[in-house]
Amino acid sequence: MGTFWPNRRGPSPSHKMYASAKSLLSCCMPLHQRPTMGGVGNKMPAGRGWLLLGVVVLALGVAASPAQAQAPGTSNHYDFYITETKVTRLCHEKTILAVNGQFPGPTIYAHKDDVVTVNVYNQGNKNITVHWHGVDQPRNPWSDGPEYITQCPIQPGANLTYKIIFTEEEGTLWWHAHSDFDRATVHGAMIIYPKQGTTYPYPMPHKEMPIIIGEWWNEDIEQLLLDSQRTGGDIPISNATTINGQPGDLINPSCSKNGTFRMLVEHGKTCLLRVINAGLTNEMFFAIAGHRLTVVGTDGRYLKPFTTDYIMISPGQTFNMLLEPITPTNGSGNSRYYIAARPYVTNFNLQVDSTTATGILEYVDMPPSSGPPDFPNQLPALRDIAAATAYTAQLRSLVTEQYPVDVPTHVDEHMLVTIAVNTVPCGGNNQTCTGPNGNRLAASLNNVSFVDPVVDILDAYYYSIPGNYTPDFPNKPPFFFNFTDPNFPTNKSFTQRGTKVKVVEYGTVLEVVLQDTAILGAESHPMHLHGFSFYTVGRGFGNFDQSKDPASYNLVDPPYQNTVSVPKGGWAAIRFRAANPGVWFMHCHFDRHAVWGMDTVFIVKNGKTPEAQMMPRPPNMPKC
Ligand SMILES: [Cu+2]
Ranges for the Plastocyanin-like domain (predicted)? Predict the structure, then answer.
């Protein structure tokens, strides 16, 4: 099939050549204008198309950015400058941390098997780290990113070069800060194209577009986190759901209309949507009025294609979808259609940000319509558990000769891990907290509420520094009760703090059943594992039953994921082979749960051969 994105190293056109951005707004990024892998110098967009996109970005406030390919060959380099940046949404101006002044941040482009380096310069006002979400990083936990797990934070004024080793991943992943709540504004897409000379397992789309779902707080999110840590109470809800950093014109229209994300399409030109949920708080439904979507991939892996009216995407997940721009026959004949993201909320006790973010899909080859865009009435309601369950049940790995699966059929070690929101005593001198019953909110896995160590766990492990963690994370919960009964024993609301890790031998096949509990309210949890993708072999409601439920497992074509949505009052079973030596975080991707302790760590020991051993510690890792 030849080359799909020919290297175009032509001279960089000046911006004034593209002064009339309007004429160039033909939808998403045309694929023939992909970035080249051999760049033309630092901070110089490598392909002509990226300048075009840059102009479009400026014109529409669309958050996608030129690649900054630097080194020739397969190695690419980016410079990320994290600075305090002023942005205005909902007519509130505030200072956020952002990469290269962009919110959402710049897109990283790579091909399968590339190695990309990113030098992160912390020019902000607080410690920070960055994680390359969904990249397995074989033998390279050093560049994984979570604060106090695999590194000490990058302090203000310092910098750190991360090495992202892409191997099996192909599709869409993303990067984000992995410290406090910095992820709210420090995030961006990673696009991993097929290996040079190979193609997608579906017809070549004409265009592509990252769509990043997020949240906006009018207040300073870091301050809200600090306040909640002082009071022991919950974190205030966000003020708006966002699409590519914008609430859209249904939320406070007089403030939001101008910035609304617009995606321009033409009849017959298929667009590949790369949807990412970068939100901190909510799973999301997503749909486009008048159009069906063909889902072809998730979490940097291919799926058996299926067509759907909507998707449900958890924080941490990505979905690749093909959009065929055809004027809907049942629509109004409108030239504009809302793209919409609405929270999917399973904890009915919580106050939530229920705003629906919108962008606009706009046909450039139709007469412009004057009325409002059509709204996607197929978008499920806020609490539609049945809609979410039906969507997720459709996820199956592609499975072809070129994209085989390797689902473990033999399990070496079984773990049952309960997930809970809890409390701990407020602490101090009879201090009263604003959490339940005057206590402090906490969260746990197997009743261990994870506490960050003083020295990051990877260094503590590598240098055998005692006192930072204990290797006794349990394989099962300490107590068995009816986990999903809302009338849970009241004494079970309290949890214990600790820094407990699970140590496994290299190559061990693990099955981890993640079990939600009703303690302080059942809800779904997007559980994310670093260092691995895993097969989600089963999901179900109620208490997992080892004698019955494995019979329903899909061991033929289960989805290969890095983040699984554990159903409210239910369970999810994942399997993976621990053939990646290092220190790997597992946590809920609802950030408030993660900071409350819904986390644990796998330490995978070195194997015997050199290929089964961690890379040596790079120089210049930050100090705690
Ligand atoms: Cu959670």
Answer: 82-196, 208-363, 473-607
Ligand 1 centre and the CA of 528: distance in Å? 10
- Taking the centre of ligand 1 as the mean of its atom positions, its distance from the CA of residue 105, in whole angstroms, is 25
405: left (phi over 0), alpha (psi -120 to 50) or beta: beta
Neighbours of 489 (CB within 10 A): 11
Beta-sheet strands, E only, within 223-370: 240-243, 262-265, 271-277, 283-288, 293-298, 301-308, 311-313, 318-323, 336-344, 357-363
In the reported structure, the alpha carbon of residue 593 is separated from the centroid of ligand 1 by a whole-number distance in angstroms of 5
CATH numbers and ranges of domains, the chain: 15-203 (2.60.40.420), 210-392 (2.60.40.420), 413-612 (2.60.40.420)
pTM: 0.90
pLDDT along the chain (624 residues), means of 10: 28 27 38 37 31 35 31 68 98 98 97 97 98 98 98 98 98 98 98 94 96 98 96 97 98 95 96 98 97 97 98 98 82 86 95 97 90 95 98 98 97 98 88 92 98 98 98 97 90 94 98 97 97 98 98 98 98 98 98 98 98 96 94
d(CA 165, ligand 1 centre) in Å: 28
- What separation in Å is there between the alpha carbon of 277 and the centre of ligand 1? 15
CA of 580 to the centre of ligand 1 (A): 25
